[in-house]
Design goal:
Layout lengths: L8 E6 L3 E3 L6 E7 L13 E8 L2 E8 L4 E5 L7 E9 L2 E3 L6 E5 L8 H19 L5 E3 L2 E3 L3 H9 L1
Parallel strand pairs: 2-9
Antiparallel strand pairs: 1-3, 3-6, 4-5, 4-7, 7-8, 7-9, 10-11
Helix pairs in contact: 1-2
Organism: Streptococcus fermentans
Protein name: Phage protein
Length: 158
Amino acid sequence: MASVHNSTNLEQVDGGFLVKQGDVASTFAFSLLDENHMPIPQLEGQEASIMLTKDQEQIKKKAIVTKGTVAFNLDKILPVGLYRIEISAGGFTFPSDDSTQIRVTKSDKNLVTEEVHTLKELDISEEVKKQLAGRTTGNSEVGMEFPDLLFYYNLGKV
């Protein structure tokens, strides 16, 4: 019995190598090809798993194979850096190589990734809790006494 050499290839057919941080409109598309750089017909209509990897960071996406191609966009703000792309469909894995990478470059806007935004929100709520701890609201001639929460909210937005 002859041994079968299974080699798969990814070829970018839409989108570029560089994308600005926060660009959620640009589409990236990759053809899923066999060892002869030909489409694999049995993948048509199947769900593909797309993994973008940078160091310890992994972003997972799903897409349907259409005309031998998988298309996706970056639907959230990613940290700046070089992401390798690996796509799995129908039992095949299409690994990333030097030609199938996306570099996210810093935007001119002051964008905040989801993780940083979440930390910021946690810090704000913790700060409000700390400021409220041990305080009681009391009545005085002027009315109810309680802290200026808007002050703390605006502090967190800085």
